[in-house]
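Thread: "does anyone have the structure for this chain?"

Original post by V.I.:
We have the sequence but no experimental structure in hand. Need at least a predicted one for the grant figures.
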Amino acid sequence: MAWEEQVFSLLEDLEQQAEALYDAERGPELADRVRAEYAAVTLASRLAATEGSPVELDVQGVGRLAGHLDRVAAGWVSLEVAGTDWVVRTAAVVEVRGASERALPEVAWSPLGRLGVGSALRRLADAGEPCWWHRLDGGRVEGVPARVGADFVELRTGREGRTVLVALDALAAVARVG
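Reply from O.Q.:
Generated one for you, C-alpha cells below.
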C-alpha cells in the first residue's frame, strides 16, 4: 500500500504543478482580455452609470460645470447646475470628475437614451424659451430656438428676431437663460 500512496502523492504533486503553470500562463492572457474589453468602454457608458449623481464636467468652450447628471443619451447629457438646465454634447466634454467606476453599455440603455441631441434641442424649441448657445470655440449667442435641422439649429436672436444658424458640430452646450 505504501507504494500506491507514493504514486498518488506524486500524481497529485504533478497535477498541482500543472495547475500552477496553467495559471501562470493564463494570467497575462486574462490581463490582455481585460484591456481589450475595457478599450470598448465609452465615455457615455461611464456617464450612464453615473446618471442621477453629482458630477463635474469640464466642457470645451464653456469651462467647468458642477451639477446633477439628470440624463445621458446618444451624444449628449442633461445636467442641472444651480437651478439651470444644461444640454451638453459629450463630444465637448474634456474631463469628468465624480464618474462611477462602473459602465452601462449602450445596449442596456432605455429607448430614451438612444435619442440624439436634436431631440433635446427640439424640446427646447417647443418650449420657446431663450437659451445661451455655447460654441466649442468659446463664443456664445443668446437666442430662442425656432427649428432644428439635421446638423444645425435655427435661433431667433435680439429684439428684431434676426435668424442665426448654429452648426451642431460647433455646439458645446446649451443653457436656459435664468
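V.I.: this helps a lot. The radius of gyration is 26 Å.
O.Q.: and The beta strands are 54-59, 63-73, 76-81, 84-89, 93-97, 131-135, 140-148, 152-157, 162-167, 171-176.
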